[in-house]
Design goal:
Blueprint (H helix, E strand, L loop, with lengths): L19 H12 L10 H11 L6 H11 L3 H10 L12 E6 L2 H5 L2 H11 L13 E6 L11 E3 L2 E4 L3 H12 L7 E2 L28 H10 L1 H14 L3 H7 L24 H9 L5 H5 L3 H11 L4 H4 L2 H20 L5
Parallel strand pairs: 1-2, 4-5
Antiparallel strand pairs: 1-3, 3-4
The structure holds FE2/S2 (inorganic) cluster.
């Protein structure tokens, strides 16, 4: 952690005033606190000032907040310099990237993410990129350790990042594209990557736990309705071969030709996802290498996540692996497959 001081006078604006809308919001917020405890509104009001002022709080803004809350300025400075959520100097207009460097994120590759920041933004943290659009810093745990490594940009977090995903994320922000916050791999929130791995059987309905007589009666009454779930179950239990045969689009195989390839060598494919790909009929790099745009769309839908295949460039990775294994991969990507 670096020492947190107010920015140099050369960048400090002479004054700060809330817009009418923000002023009304700040007054409403202050009113939520009891009369003698209104100084507690200092954090939300400072945060609003930061949002209004291009992502950082100037000394003038701190002093204005101090006046509104009748607080000595030094107390507002203390708060703003203590919490890393407050930026004390100008930050990138498009993104100020806060990279979590605490143990779980560090063990999962946050140093590689910082290396990307150094290369693409600026060698030193808290330094604006040449175009003024980006800046970065290392921060302590941001509370999303389960999806480490992660970063925060303004109010949003982006999780489960690899250096490649981080590069792409910065490129897309530079182009003004929208990125969905949260995990950047195929998981929902902090659920397991690639789908559930436990607690994934159906919940037994309460009526099935009632005494045998009651169950028999209920079963008799509900006979027609039961037909539908039975059909659903039979679809689920259909042999893999039949499921594979029904799929259209890219070439699929009911089973591998000889030994299946280790699809986990493709960056972005984990053990669970490999199993899913196998179930869908994909066993070999050569199959994935042949996917067209249309095929990618189809598989994207089947895997229930959009853009992942393109984002991680599975097809190019598969082409290299199909052509010459690890050696070809290193030649193309300059690093070992994971
Ligand atoms: S350690 Fe990075 S979010 Fe907690």
């Amino acid at each position: 952690m670096s020492v947190r001081r107010l920015a140099d006078d050369s960048v400090q604006p002479k004054s700060f005033a809330f817009t009418a809308k923000n002023l009304s919001w700040a007054k409403q917020t202050i009113k939520k606190y009891p009369k003698d405890k209104q100084v507690s509104a200092v954090i939300p009001v400072l945060w609003r000032a930061q949002e209004q002022h291009d992502g950082w709080v100037s000394r003038a803004a701190m002093e204005e907040v101090g006046r509104m809350l009748d607080m000595p300025f030094i107390r507002v400075y203390e708060i703003a310099t203590f919490y890393t959520m407050f930026q004390l100097a100008p930050v990138g207009k498009k993104a100020h990237v806060q990279v979590c460097g605490t143990t779980p994120c560090m063990l999962r590759g946050s140093e590689d993410l910082m290396a990307v920041c150094k290369r693409k933004i600026a060698e030193q943290p808290h330094t604006l990129s040449e175009d003024g659009n980006f800046s970065w810093e290392e921060v302590e745990c941001l509370g999303a350790c389960v999806n480490a490594p992660m970063i925060q940009i303004f109010s949003d977090t982006y999780e489960d990042l690899s250096p490649e995903a981080m590069e792409e994320l910065l490129d897309r922000i530079a182009k003004g594209q929208k990125i969905r916050p949260g995990p950047q791999v195929d998981r929902v929130m902090s659920a397991p990557e690639g789908g559930l791995t436990s607690l994934n059987s159906e919940v037994v309905p309460a009526k099935k736990t009632t005494p045998r007589k009651a169950v028999a009666k209920a079963t008799k009454k509900a006979a027609p309705a039961k037909a539908a779930p039975a059909k659903k179950a039979s679809v689920k239990a259909a042999p893999a071969k039949a499921a594979v045969a029904k799929k259209s689009g890219p070439e699929r195989l009911a089973k591998p030709k000889g030994k299946a390839d280790d699809l986990k060598l493709i960056s972005g494919v984990g053990p669970k996802l490999e199993q899913t790909l196998n179930k869908l009929g994909f066993w070999h790099f050569a199959q994935i290498a042949k996917w067209t745009k249309k095929d990618i769309g189809i598989v994207d839908d089947e895997l229930s996540f959009k853009g992942r295949i393109d984002r991680d460039d599975w097809v190019r990775q598969a082409k290299a692996l199909a052509k010459g294994g690890e050696a070809e991969y290193i030649k193309v990507f300059g690093k070992k497959p994971r």
